[in-house]
Design a protein that fits this description.
This protein is mainly beta and 318 residues long. The protein is 11% helix and 27% strand. The strands form 5 sheets. A 6-stranded antiparallel sheet has the order 6-9-5-4-13-14. The protein has a 5-stranded mixed sheet with strand order 10-11-12-17-18.
């Protein structure tokens, strides 16, 4: 099974889109919304999207595994965004590259790196059409801003907590501790209690739970054709369609997506498809004797080998 595409840039919609002057279903403060037309994006057709691998779009925050100071490390998504004054200039000049200066962007840590395929001019990264420069910052346990990211990695053991399909049964999920070295150059989605309103119902305020989901790992077994009405019906009527969206991984590496909001549909939904699948725990890490009761590696190790009806129903309370 080939490794599917890494998510380094914003993924375009599989259909051509248009902007409507009505409140966004996705962002409360946004007074417009981007919706799909019925015309398939020519870039998707050029990449033969009808033969692409369809995977579930997971609602979380994007992460990346690559080296930092010579060791495998989890990196959090951090896009460089323009200052308020520069943002006005971007809008006025339609994000003209001529207006891009380093001082126009908000400060980022020295360890920040630009994402793959970000264009450069005179040695400086160039913003995308939204005026942002996609990038990454390494996760460590001293930065409280990324404490939920840090909870899913153990750098001393060199492992991460990963949710994926079982190797012998695609209908079964498993939570496993995976060597960070095995995740090198992959992107993943961090989901859990304190991410995006927790649409999958993991953990609780008393015992927060987070895991990493590799991009492309949750394949859609019976995907609908790339046709507007058939996709709309699939999201509305099929249990497997109770997902945030679909990401298609084309053979040439191109990624395209559809979000329920593109079709005017609600997200999150009650009982998402991810919560209809049983999950087994395969985390057998020697717990740190000084670890907190809320340490996720300690918690998962205590239920190693057990099978649960879904990820939402795993009992984490001490």
């Amino acid at each position: 099974m080939r490794r599917l595409g890494s998510v380094q840039q914003k993924i375009p919609c599989v259909f051509l889109t248009e902007v409507r002057n009505e409140p966004s279903r996705k962002r409360d403060c946004q007074q417009f919304q981007v919706v799909a037309t019925e015309n398939v994006n020519p870039a998707a057709l050029q990449s033969d999207v009808h033969c692409a691998v369809a995977t579930e779009k997971i609602d979380g925050t994007c992460c990346y595994v690559t080296t930092y100071r010579g060791e495998p490390c989890l990196w959090a998504r951090l896009d460089r965004k323009p200052t308020k004054q520069a943002d006005k200039r971007f809008k006025k000049y339609q994000y003209s590259q001529k207006t891009c200066k380093d001082k126009d962007f908000r400060e980022v840590p020295e360890s920040w790196i630009a994402a793959h395929r970000v264009q450069h001019e005179n040695g400086q990264p160039v913003p995308d059409e939204h005026g942002h420069i996609p990038g990454w910052v390494p996760v460590d346990h001293t930065n409280k801003q990324y404490c939920w990211h840090a909870s899913v990695v153990n750098y001393d053991a060199g492992v991460a907590l990963v949710l994926k399909t079982h190797g012998e049964d695609e209908g079964l999920l498993e939570i496993v501790s995976v060597p960070l070295a095995d995740l090198m150059e992959q992107t993943l989605e961090l989901i859990g209690t304190n991410i995006n309103g927790n649409p999958y119902g993991l953990g609780s305020k008393k015992h927060p739970v987070h895991v990493l989901v590799p991009h492309g790992v949750l394949r859609i077994r019976n995907p609908p054709p790339v046709e507007f009405q058939q996709l709309y019906s699939w999201f509305q009527e099929c249990q497997e369609g109770r997902v945030e969206g679909i990401v298609w991984h084309c053979d040439d590496g191109t990624l395209v997506k559809i979000h329920r909001h593109h079709l005017g549909l609600k997200w999150p939904v009650g009982d998402p498809f991810l919560n209809t699948r049983p999950v087994v725990i395969h985390v057998d890490e020697t717990p740190d004797p000084d670890a907190s009761e809320k340490d996720l590696f300690k918690s998962f190790s205590s239920i190693n080998g057990k099978l649960f009806s879904c990820i939402r129903d795993i009992p984490f309370e001490p």
